[in-house]
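Re: the 251-residue chain
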Amino acid sequence: MNFHKFLLGVHGKSSNDGIRGELGTFPIKIKAEIQIIKYWHRLLNLPQDTLLREAYDVLHSGNHDWVNHVNDILNYNGFGHVWTNPRLYQTDMLTNQLRQRLQDIYIQEWHSSIQNNSKLSIYSALKTRYGQEKYLASIHNFEIRRSITKIRICSHKLNIEAGRYRKIPRDQRFCPFCPNEIEDESHFIMNCSRYKDKRSKLFTFISACSNEFNALRSVDRFNYILGGDNPYCVQIGIFIKECLDIRTSNV
């Protein structure tokens, strides 16, 4: 996970759920459990008189922890029938179906996790599917790319996040440029007076290219701008980076 955070250019305390969501990766536990079942199934297809099969039979009769772990993986994920009748599947078919089941279960748990994480409230609204976001491949400049990532997964120094670590009440995490306005991601992108000129330039560019953008409400424009497959992600990334730079140099 630390490598994934390094790859995206965000700090070590960034949300693991946000990182996995952006990259579309799965926990290594899934691959490990698939390899366990694959090895187990191949053992059972060996001739009875082979050394490996004989060793497995000894473990099985002795109620060994590894054998019990195989049983637990199959039962927990709805493949208990395979334990009693392993010849129902060929090895590749079994592992492919198990992989899909494990990934489906993880995605359901992941969706539930981000929806119940106040830090990822914006991200849960933006993230409509599990998988690598297109902007990561579309933007080749590292600094521009990670500027979008920072805002999307709340891995930034805006006061809505920085105030969390300084124990500042949420309703007092004000913008350094706009008195009495909470400095959250929406304010930063859509309303902060300090970035008015740069915002106007960006919106004018997008409006000239997309009639859809002109018809959107403010909240929908915000979601559109931070969408992972936005065709204008390079221009949006430049805007976000320039605004973050302004903030860093003035706060």
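Residues 82 and 89 are 8 Å apart (CA to CA).
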